[in-house]
Structures are given as C-alpha cells and as structure tokens.
Amino acid sequence: MATVELRFSAQPEHVRTARLVAAAVARRAGVDEAVLDEVRLAVGEACSRAVGLHLSNGLTAPVRVVLTEEEKLFSIEVGDEVPGPAGGPEGTVSGIDATLDPDTETEDEMGLAVISGLVDDVEVTSGEGGGTIRMSWPVSGASDRP
Amino acid sequence: MDLSLSTRTVGDRTVVEVGGEIDVYTAPKLREQLVELVNDGSYHLVVDMERVDFLDSTGLGVLVGGLKRVRAHEGSLRLVCNQERILKIFRITGLTKVFPIHTTVEDAVAATD
Question: A30 and which of A37, A126, A128, A143 could share a cystine (Cβ 3.0–4.6 Å)?
C-alpha cells in the first residue's frame, strides 16, 4: 500500500508542492539526507514532464504521485494519463547526447536525461492508460521515527 | 519560494542576478527576462546563479535558449555558480561543455575567450 498518494491538477505551480511532499516523505522513510536533493529534483522532473504532457494533450485529469516506503527501499511513481504505445516498456531512457545539441530546446528529453543521470533505479513505461516513471532509492534503515 | 531577478550593467556586459527556484513554473519569467535583454541589444550576458536554491531541466532549457539567442548576435552567455548541487545538474546533462561557468561575477565579466 502506498505510504502517501498525491494527485494534483496538471499546472506548473503545483510541481513545487509535489517536490516538497516527496522530500518530506523520503526523509521520514530514512532516505539519506545527502540524497534528498536528488529525490527532490527527480520528482520535480517527472512531475514537470507529466504536467507538460497533460497540458499539451489538453487533458484535465490530475497527475498522480505515489510515494511508497518499503523495508529497504523508497519508491516514487509519477503517472500521467497520456496514452503511449501500448505494450509496456518504452525501452531505455533517452541518452544524455540527445540533450547536448543546443540547437534544439528539448526540455522533455532533458528532464528524462536528468532523471537517468540522478537515479540508478528508474523505469519508464507507457501504455494505453498513460505513462509511468518509477524511481527508487535505498533506505538507510535509520528512519525518522520517534 | 519564488524567482527573483535583477539586472545591472558592467561595461559591455549585463549581469542577471537570479535567486530562488527555477522550475517549470518560474522558468518562463527568466526566459522573458533573457529575451527582453537580447531584444534590447544586450548580447553579452552573465547569469549569476549564486542565490539559486533549485534548478531543473526547464531552467536548463531556458539557459540554452538564451545562449542560442545571444549567439545569433555573436554574443556570449556566461554562468556564475559555485554550488555543487547546481553544478551537478550541468554535469549530468553535459552542459558544462556548452556553458562557460565561472566562480565569481568579476571573472565572468572579465572573460573574453
């Protein structure tokens, strides 16, 4: 069961809220303090991408963020509702090279490049119901509990 | 936290001091500022990011866009940044090869290469 689930209307101003919530839950789950910046950035990137996809496709549905605390793992799933090619995995996350060309403004690609550069364990999938970015981080064990 | 922007002129350079968070919500303000400067004829820009708390790929996209605009006028766009967490984002995206990054505004203003 998800520890915290968040749905927000696909507007850029709410992405910051999602970052703050994710970082707070990650801290409580025992994710290393030094990694929280990465969690914050990765969630922000995934949410920005989902918001962009919803807006450009005229979807009014909310963006979904699921934060799950497991025994040795903290995972975050960011889901959009923009149908992609059915049949599961989209393949690997786009390479860094795709973003290097300063002649193109490919923010979406750059977002995925940042995520893949930051997070070791990341999975991007798409299907008829929408796309999901799933990321996870190890938990140190010393969680922030009383 | 919102985005703060202020500009000042040093010789033929325009220094844009950015503070706060540059993300999908605030990046358009930075984009407007850079576009406005280039439209007004400021082609040598120094973006001081020492007071930036957060930067994401949307912000990177705006900076790349700014670089493209000044280059169209044979201008330059230099960054000032010492914060490791911000520098890391430039490194993982390979953009350290694209932007000259300086440790002080004085260095950036004096740089000519």
Answer: A143
- ipTM value for the complex: 0.89
**What confidence tens digit (pLDDT) does each residue in A57-92 have?**
999 999 999 999 998 999 999 999 999 865 444 444
**In sequence order, which residues have a C-beta less than 8 Å from that of residue B64 and are 6 or more positions away?**
A102, A105, B95, B98
pTM: 0.87
Domains of chain A, start order: 4-138 (3.30.565.10)
Provide the shortest C-alpha distance from residue B75 to chain A (in Å). 15
Evaluate whether the domain defined by B3-107 bears CATH number 3.30.750.24: yes
- B86 pLDDT exceeds 60? yes
CA distance A40 to B56: 10
Instruction: Check CB contact under 8 Å for A96 and B92.
Output: yes
